[in-house]
C-alpha cells in the first residue's frame, strides 16, 4: 500500500487455523460474490470506496477512527495467486483522484506530481501465455507467470513454483490515464440533509431519514439515534478517555404523527366484528362473544400445557376515548425519549 495504490486479497472464504493464520476455505472464483462485484466494478468503470480499520498496520501510522474512509479507487487489476492448495484472488486499487494528496500519506509528504508531469507511459510488461493464450501482467519482480487459474501453466515460473515473491516496481508505479468515464455511483460524502425538505410532512419518518448523516461541522458519521433526529455527540456513548471538546452539531426535525388512515389498509378504520377463519389442520379456539362483551374471547386449549386466551378487539373498542386509536396518536406526538442505544462498537 502507498499513497495512491492499494493491493489486497479479495475478502471472504477464509478461516483461521490453529495458529491464527488466515487459510482459504475454497478457491476464489466467479462463485464468490465479492470477487464478482470487483470484476463488475472494473468492467463497468465504477470506482469503489475503500475503508481502512485501525487494526491495519500497513500504513505504519495510527488511524484516527475505528473505520476510516480512504477515497474512491478504480480497480486496475485482478489476478490469482496460489495460496497453499487453493487459488486466491488479489486486486490492485488505484486512487481515482490523483491530483490531491491522500489524507493517509505520511506527514510532510510532497504534493503529488501534477497530472501533466506524470509518466503515463510506465506500464508493467504484459505477456501471452503459450499454454492458454491469455495475457497476464508481470506482477512480480522475480519474473512473469501465467495468472489464469484454469491454465496448466498457472503459477509456474519456467516450470517451477515460485517461493518468495516481491512486486514488480512497474506494476506498483504505473497509473491509469484519467478518463471522464470512470465515475462513482454516489458522492463519497453524501449530503443526505440537503435532500430532506422539512416542509414535506412525511419526510421525518421516511425510511431514508432513519439513516445516518455526515456531520456538516466535523465530518463524523452520525447514526440516527434519536426519535427526532441526529446529534453529533451522543453523551451516553462518549468514551471517558476522549477529553477533547465534543462537536455540538445536532439536527432535530418536527415529527408529524402518521395518521391511522395511512397505516390501516381496510376501507374502514378497523372491523365492526372481525371475521375469523380457523384452519381445521390446527387447534380451534373456543369462542365466547358474551362473557367479556364487547371483547370476543378466544381460548386455545393446549393439551398437557394449559391455555392461551386472546381478547379480540374491534372498531368500537379501538375508538374509545384514550383507547388504542388515541394511544397511537399520543405515542407519536410525545417525545418519549425513544432512542437507539450503542451496541459494542465493533466485533472481531
Ligand atoms: Zn496460461
Ligand atoms: Zn460533528
Protein traits:
348 residues, PUA domain-like, 3 domains, 3-stranded antiparallel β-sheet, 5 helices, 10% helix, 22% strand, binds zinc ion
Structure description:
The protein has 5 helices and 15 strands. It is mainly beta and 348 residues long. The protein has 3 domains: 155 residues, PUA domain-like; 96 residues, no CATH class; 60 residues, no CATH class. It has a 4-stranded antiparallel β-sheet, covered by helices on one side. β7 and β8 form a beta hairpin. The radius of gyration is 30 Å and the shape is elongated. The two termini are 23 Å apart. The mean pLDDT is 87. Bound molecules: zinc ion (2 copies). One zinc ion (ZN) binds next to loops.
Structural topology:
Blueprint (H helix, E strand, L loop, with lengths): L4 E5 L4 E3 L5 E3 L8 H11 L4 E6 L13 E17 L2 E10 L30 E3 L6 E3 L31 H5 L39 E2 L6 E2 L6 E3 L18 E3 L7 H4 L22 E3 L7 E7 L3 E7 L2 H4 L5 H10 L15
Antiparallel strand pairs: 1-6, 2-3, 4-5, 5-6, 7-8, 9-10, 11-12, 13-14, 14-15
User: Fraction of residues in helices?
Assistant: under 10%
Q: Which structural class is indicated by helix and strand composition? A: mainly beta
Largest sheet strand order: 1-6-5-4
Global outline: elongated
Order of helices and strands: EEEHEEEEEHEEEEHEEEHH
Identify the bound ligands: zinc ion
- Biggest sheet descriptor: 4 strands, antiparallel
CATH architecture of the largest domain: Roll
Please write the CATH class name of the largest domain: Mainly Beta
Which stretches are low in confidence, meaning pLDDT under 50 for 5 or more residues running?
none
Mean pLDDT: 87
Please work out how many helical segments DSSP would assign. 5
Radius of gyration: 30 Å
Number of domain modules: 3
CATH topology of the largest domain: PUA domain-like
From the N-terminal CA to the C-terminal CA, the straight-line distance is 23 Å
Percent strand: 15-25%
Let me know the number of strands.
15
Amino acid at each position: 500500500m502507498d499513497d495512491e495504490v492499494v493491493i489486497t486479497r479479495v475478502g471472504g472464504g477464509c478461516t483461521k487455523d490453529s495458529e491464527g493464520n488466515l487459510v482459504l476455505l475454497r478457491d476464489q472464483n466467479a462463485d464468490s460474490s465479492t470477487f464478482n462485484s470487483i470484476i463488475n466494478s472494473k468492467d463497468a468503470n465504477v470506482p469503489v470506496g475503500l475503508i481502512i480499520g485501525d487494526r491495519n498496520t500497513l500504513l505504519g501510522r495510527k488511524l484516527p477512527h475505528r473505520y476510516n474512509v480512504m477515497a474512491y479507487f478504480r480497480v486496475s487489476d485482478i489476478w490469482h495467486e496460489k495460496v497453499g492448495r487453493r487459488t486466491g484472488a488479489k486486486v490492485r486499487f488505484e486512487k481515482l483522484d490523483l491530483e490531491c494528496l491522500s489524507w493517509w500519506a505520511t506527514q510532510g509528504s510532497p504534493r503529488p506530481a501534477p497530472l501533466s508531469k506524470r509518466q503515463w507511459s510506465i506500464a508493467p510488461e504484459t505477456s501471452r501465455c503459450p499454454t492458454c493464450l491469455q495475457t497476464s501482467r508481470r506482477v512480480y519482480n522475480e519474473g512473469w507467470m501465467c495468472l489464469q487459474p484454469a491454465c496448466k501453466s498457472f503459477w509456474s515460473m519456467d516450470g517451477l513454483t515460485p517461493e518468495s515473491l516481491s512486486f514488480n516496481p512497474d506494476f506498483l508505479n504505473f497509473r491509469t490515464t484519467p478518463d471522464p468515464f470512470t465515475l462513482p455511483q454516489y458522492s463519497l460524502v453524501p449530503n443526505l440533509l440537503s435532500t430532506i425538505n422539512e416542509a414535506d410532512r412525511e419526510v421525518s419518518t421516511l425510511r431514508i431519514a432513519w439513516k445516518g448523516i455526515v456531520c456538516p461541522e466535523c465530518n463524523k458519521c452520525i447514526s440516527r439515534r434519536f426519535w427526532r433526529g441526529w446529534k453529533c455527540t451522543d453523551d451516553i456513548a462518549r468514551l471517558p478517555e476522549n477529553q477533547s471538546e465534543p462537536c455540538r452539531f445536532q439536527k432535530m426535525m418536527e415529527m408529524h404523527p402518521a395518521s391511522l388512515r395511512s397505516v390501516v389498509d381496510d376501507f374502514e378504520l378497523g372491523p365492526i366484528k372481525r371475521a375469523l377463519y380457523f384452519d381445521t389442520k390446527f387447534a380451534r379456539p373456543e369462542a365466547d362473544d358474551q362473557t367479556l362483551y364487547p371483547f370476543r374471547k378466544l381460548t386455545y386449549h393446549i393439551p398437557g400445557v394449559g391455555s392461551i386466551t386472546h381478547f379480540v378487539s374491534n372498531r368500537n373498542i379501538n375508538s374509545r376515548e384514550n383507547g388504542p386509536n388515541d394511544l397511537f396518536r399520543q405515542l407519536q406526538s410525545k417525545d418519549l425519549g425513544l432512542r437507539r442505544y450503542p451496541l459494542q462498537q465493533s466485533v472481531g
